[in-house]
Predict the 3D structure of the following.
Amino acid sequence: MRIRQQGSFNNGYNAITQMNGKHSDMLMDFGILKLDQEQKMISVDDKERAYLLIKGEVIFEWDEHKVTAKRVSCFDENPWCLHVPQNERVTITSVSEDSEIAVQATNNEKSFPAKLYTPEECMSEQRGQGTMKETSTRTVRTIFDKSNTEHANLVLGEVIDHPGKWSSYPPHHHPQPEIYFYKFYPENGFGYAELGEDVVKVRNNDTVTIAEGLTHPQATAPGYAMYYLWVIRHLDSNPYITPTFVEEHTWVMDKEAKIWPDK
């Protein structure tokens, strides 16, 4: 379902989904942390957590580490993301006047080393390139998944949709719950998110929750770039590895496919 955000977020933590509250079917806490200059957030939680810098400049502190991270544009720059296990103390201090951090959390009793993922470590790729007449070319950034974080219960990444193009295409689905959180450039932009047989209009700061088995391709309005953060929660007996594509549409992935009007 679509969760509409009217205007900007309030200062502090803005809860969007809650494991023991609203949208509990997502099996994770998700929200946006907004900090003013020199404002500090301290977190000690019995959950696995990931703190992804969307914009601004902050100081991340954990264990004996202290690192300054800066991100001017989530559209043009790879992310910084601090990923920690349960009971790890985290302090985030804003250096800039308006810092925004996406916070993801879920249950995980397994221990793993805390890690700050830097922009240089983020795997970024141009998916769809060379196919479908470039109508689904997009930038996909994977921060961590089973390939580099075996003991995590979360999967985290970003997509940059080019104006007038599609992403998460061909249509695909998976049994694990997923959250999309959106930004647009310019901010008055919009796009459309499929949720199975339904389609919703999404705007800046909106969130979409994707339940088990729903297909979820996205389309972006011409003239606007669309960013979305995606976070998946592994199921205890069924971790997310790859999605299942709707077979009748997979032919479009062939670089030799003949697509109208050339067909």
In short: The chain has a mean pLDDT of 97. Residues 126 and 254 are 16 Å apart (CA to CA).
